[in-house]
Amino acid sequence: MTVAERRTLVEGRGLMKTFGGAGLLRRKTINRAIDGVDIDIFKGEVVALIGESGSGKTTLGKVLLRLTTLDTGVVRFDGQDVFRASSRALRAMRREFQMVFQNQSANLHPKMTVREMMDESLRLHRPELDATGRAAQALELLGRVGLAARAEQRPASLSGGERRRVGLARILATRPKLIVADEPTSGLDAAIKQQMVELLKTLKDPDLAYLLISHDLGLVRKISERVLVMLKGRIIEEVPAAELGRAPFHHPYTHKLMRAADLLEEGRHSTAPDAAAAGARPFDPADRGGSSPAGCVHAADCQLGARLGILSRCSNERPRPVPLGPSHWVACFAAEAKEATG
Amino acid sequence: MGRFSRIGLWLSGAIVLVVVLLGVVAPFIPYEPADAVSYDRVLEVPSVSHVLGTDEQGRDIAMRLVKGTEAFFLPGLMAAGIAVLVGALAGAVAGYATGPVRAVIVGALQLLDTLPRLVFIILVCTIRNPSVTLIAFVAGVLFIPTVAAVIRRKVEALGSEDYILAHIAHGFHSVWVILYHILWLQCWPIMVRQAAYVFGYVLFVETGLSYLGDYGVQEPDPSWGNMVAQVRSLPPDAPWPWLVPAAAIVLTISGFLAFGNLAARRGEEAIR
Amino acid sequence: MNRLLGLVLLAGRRLAGGLLLLVGASFLIYFTIRSAPGDAIDAITPMGTPPEVKEKLAADFGLDQPPLAGYVTWLGRSATGDFGESLVFAPGEQVMTIARPAFKLTLLVSGGALLLCLFLATALAVVLGEPSPRQQLLTGALYFVTAAPAFVAAIFFSQGMNAFVRRFVEDAGYDTPPWYPIPIYSESVMPYFFAGIVLVAGDGLFMDMLNTVRAEILAVRNAQFIAAIRAKGASTLPHTFRNLVVPFVSAFAARLPVVLGGVVIVEYVFTLDGAGYLLLEASKQRDFPVVVGLSVLFTLAIIVMNLLADVVRAAVDPREVARNG
Asked: Residue A20, SS3?
């Protein structure tokens, strides 16, 4: 899909969310999970959200679906304000945006068979169907995820991958426009993982958009079109998946991620921080919680900034997105410098 | 579930069944306490005509035992109902809600939980006309926090497993998620256990207060508690008038507790 | 943060919370009084109480004022330990004067019973070790026996004693032995001891305690860190102990209300001059100030116990401070 023809499905502006807070008799512990994020998801695209655990990606996914509260900001789904919607309107919306949870059996009830669970979903989301229609639809959906033969099983006799597929089949029953998939392959072994990736690809139709939350760059590059990199509650880079590791400039943190996933093509990146120094700083508990830094969230770890001698600016001023190409921007002062010189 | 637990479940289930049957049937059996007195058959040993013997006033013990279930059966059900229904709802909301709603409910529960139950029941009895129904009502209310605490723990565990969120995300109404997916599908074993416990507690309080004699059921109306109270005046060679109801109390309470526990354990195994 | 400071802060917060609870509970108690049908003062005093006593009582409890103002009056008096004067039980005596020795005794008996229960449960849990099917018969039987209400246990106990004495002591030509629990001799310690035993054996307390204690012991014993310590060849005892303090203290505090309920009836059965006996006796004689004063004191005892348990837990386990700080 070309940039010109994409239409916005979800639009998040100025999103802020902090965890913890003040009780009457309790010390304040504030942890900024999402720190001023703007995000767009376009109709029918596959966009990935990557970042280390604790970077706020799951929270962002939940915020977009109003599965958690939001401090400030606006989320619009198909033009409707999600956080202002009445509970009735919200439930109607929920049909169109669904979430695959990291915990594969989160919404499976142990005493129900797969068919019964499908029936429950279909009764909710396809009230126009009668019992036979639901049964047929259930079998069709289970067929699409390759589980038609297991309709009479209960979750206990299903494998982790199968449970996740049941979850997917239930989600498909709602005919959603957006699926937020939180670590859809975590906890699965390599072969099943591959299966899951293939399944996600096959289920994709032109009207369905995916927001893929993952720290697995390999997976992300295989199925997504656009990648958003998140660190400590901020999105610091947007890059077309095909450009990952090939673009002339990446955020130093994205580099770190790519190096970890072996995605770097050696010798192409003059901006690459040297390997020994990347991520060498020991874990500091103070990193968790606390208020967000005034400057770049990566400033304290950044080798590139140190080399360029711009660290004082990095840690005091918040970097703005610097456009580097179609669907590619980086929130980094080093990119500004590069743009100016190059 | 082991073999002994299964046997225990059947045995305690049988006790519960018998008590429930007696409790349902008893109100329909005509019984006039005054007419039952007959001083020409005082303290008879168990026989064919009086299966469990007779007491100091020649009243048939078996009959009084059956009629005695009336004293605690409906009040016990009421207390269990109040404690479990209100407690489960309060617990689910306390585990699910955030902000001021949660704070208010948690505070109220904590407050109720600090009141010593029997002491408060006696206080209420001092002030108001002490009927078993009132006692059971107060007991039911005082057990709300106990039920709420276990339900809340369960709901919070489900919350951390994203069980609740997943259902909300799928588009279910949050009230439906609480009532059906959480309370009905996931918490019923807890509710069974707690209901049995509260029922046992009401039996304990009713018999205890009736035994002490001033609150609870008054002679000549039968209660297992005031039947046991005859121990004070019985000759040592005729223990059955108090032994029978005392055994009934112990059997019923332990039967209900065991049934609640074992049935709940079985249910939890099935859900897991 | 400084550990001690955290602990002090936690204790302070808990104290504030406890006070709040006490105010709330006293509010409930007061409004239970105010909810009395008809003219409250007639409902709560025995028949034939002279009008001047009624008037004084009404003034003491703020019954002559609107509910909220009356509550404030009453709370202010109660906060200084002034619960009014006894009407019937010991006419003219300050409630606190009668209540204090009785309460001491009750706390001693119930605290002792709880400790004994905890000790026996721990001992049995250690002896039983890992659960096995064969033990289920034993635990099942124990479960059954200890589920008896304390008053039934007390009757069985005293009747058994009576039979024993008749059979072996009197028949042998002896007089009642000094430890004979019923009737009670005022000087003997034995009735308190037996009351304690009955409290341990009745109301399902023992099995409840055993289950809790056993689960905790097994959890610690099978914990990975204990395996690691064992693998190093070090003694696991201190670590086991340290990890058991928190659940034990919790178990103790959580069951105090249960025992404080059971003790009321047990004291009455054994006619011990404790707060429970006093409460029931005062309640029967409609000695209203005594009943209310004791209700507040019982509630206070539970709140204080929970407070202490919280602080002890936090002192032993730094995570508690972190969690609640």
From this structure: strand
Encode chain A (342 residues) as per-residue pLDDT tens digits: 555 567 889 999 999 888 765 444 444 555 678 888 999 999 989 999 998 888 888 899 999 999 888 889 999 998 889 999 888 899 888 888 998 888 766 778 888 889 999 999 999 888 888 999 999 999 999 998 888 888 888 888 888 888 888 888 988 888 899 999 988 888 788 888 888 888 888 888 888 999 999 888 888 888 889 999 999 889 999 999 888 888 888 898 988 888 877 766 554 444 444 444 444 444 444 444 445 677 888 888 888 888 888 888 888 888 888 888 888 899 988 887 766 554
Do A242 and A116 lie in one domain? The reply is no
Question: Kind of pairing, strands A328-330 and A234-240?
Answer: antiparallel
**Residue that terminates a domain, selected from A175, A197, A218:** A175
Q: Is A289 helix (H, G, I), strand (E, B) or coil?
A: coil
Of C109, C104, C102, whose CA–CA distance to C194 is shortest?
C109
Cα–Cα dist A106/B181, whole Å: 12
8 Å CB contact of B170 and A107: yes
Q: Which of A176, A118, A124, A164 is nearest to A142 (CA)?
A: A118
Cβ atoms within 10 A of the Cβ of B4, count? 17
Report yes or no: C325 at the A interface, CB cutoff 8 Å: yes
Pick A98's closest partner by Cβ from B169, B174, B270. Answer: B169
* A25, A26, A288, best to mutate vs chain C, most C CBs in 10 Å: A25
Residue B51 in any domain: the answer is no
- Which residue from B115, B212, B246 is facing C155, i.e. has the nearest CB? B246
pTM: 0.84
Q: What is the CATH number of the domain that holds B208?
A: 1.10.3720.10
φ and ψ at residue C237, rounded to 5 degrees: -60, -50
Nearest by CB to C257, from B116, B124, B249: name it: B116
Contact B242 C265 (CB under 8 A): no
Both A164 and A114 in one domain: the answer is: yes
Q: Do A25 and C325 lie within an 8 Å CB cutoff? A: no
**In terms of domains, do A184 and A165 share one?**
no
pLDDT attached to residue A273: 45
Kindly tell me if the per-residue pLDDT of B154 is higher than 70. yes
Give CA–CA dist A87/C237, Å, rounded. Answer: 56
Among chain A residues, CA nearest to B100: A23
Number of domains observed in the structure of chain A: 2
Residues of chain B with Cβ-Cβ distance to A106 below 8 Å are 161-163, 165-166
Residue position matching structure tokens 């899951």: A196
| Interface confidence (ipTM) of the complex | 0.86
Touching partners of A (3+ C-beta pairs < 8 Å)? B, C
Q: Are residues B127 and C147, on separate chains, in Cβ contact within 8 Å?
A: no
Q: Which of A120, A142, A175 is the last residue of a domain?
A: A175
Are residues A118 and A11 part of one domain? Answer: no
Residue B146 lies in a domain: yes
Q: Is residue A239 part of a domain?
A: yes
**Confidence bin at B256 (pLDDT 50/70/90):** very high
Q: CB distance from B168 to chain A under 8 Å?
A: yes
Domain that holds residue A133: 106-175
Q: Is B166 within 8 Å of A65 when comparing Cβ atoms? A: no
Asked if B127 reaches chain A (Cβ–Cβ under 8 Å), the answer is no
Q: Please, which residues bridge with residue A47 across strands? A: A211, A226
Give the total number of structural domains in chain B: 1
* Contact state of C303 with B114 under an 8 Å Cβ cutoff: yes
Domain limits at C256?
2-323
Q: Note the pLDDT of residue C171.
A: 57
- Chain centroid to CA A281: 26
Q: Is position B67 within any domain?
A: no
How far is Cα A182 from Cα A99, in angstroms, rounded to an integer?
7
Comparing CA positions, the residue from B127, B114, B113, B131 lying closest to residue B202 is B131
The reply to whether A79 and A158 lie within a common domain is: no
**Per the CB < 8 Å rule, is C17 touching A27?**
no
In this structure, are A19 and A127 located in the same domain?
no
User: Which residues are bridge partners to A48 per DSSP?
Assistant: A212, A227
Specify the range with the lowest mean pLDDT, choosing from A131-135, C84-88, C298-302: C84-88
Task: Please check whether residue B123 lies inside any domain of the structure.
Answer: yes
Whether residue A101 lies inside any domain: the answer is: no
Evaluate whether residue A214 is within a structural domain.
Answer: yes
